[in-house]
Amino acid sequence: MADHYYSKRPETAHERRSLETVLRGRSYRFASDSGVFSKQGIDYGSRVLIEAMQLPAQASVLDVGCGYGPIGLAAAALVPEGHVTMVDINERAVQLAIENAERNGVKNVTIKQSDLFAEVKNERFDVILTNPPIRAGKETVHTIFELAYEHLNEGGVLWVVIQKKQGAPSASAKIESLFGHVEEVTKDKGYRILKAEKSF
After folding, report:
1. Which pLDDT score, from 0 to 100, does residue 79 have?
2. Alpha-carbon distance 122 to 76, whole Å?
3. Whole-model pTM?
4. What is d(CA 189, CA 163) in angstroms, rounded to the nearest whole number?
């Protein structure tokens, strides 16, 4: 099987690079590498999600499929009294995310290698964020939504970014079937930001 950004242990030759960017008004320096998602720069979908997400200052947050860290680290800056857990199956991405947290002085994060929710199976969160791995297939993406519902506290919120042409309608329908409702918060260049609150 060829390397993908959702490979557990990429074998692609290293090709490290340094990225500088501004997210929600704060400057960041990220290390990136081959074998990880969007290695050449923060992808547009992640940027749309980062700009749209609304997080309570004390929230416990989970970033599923964190890559080298832009969504989770931006979230950490928005929850100064809270905590962000970041997970990814990709060993190389996880090491980069740890490095990027350190180089940007982000302390309120825990970063773990995890196949979806395996390493946080007993934890619950106020907010779950995901830019799901579309290339891993629809079944994997929908499993993320199902497990997100299980891992949210009552009143917790799921935020998802997904392209219309890459399954936004079916993603929206799946989330609605789980949560009973789904809101399209914004759309930008084909990307949809979906939000759903867990209520009883």
Report:
1. 98
2. 21
3. 0.93
4. 9
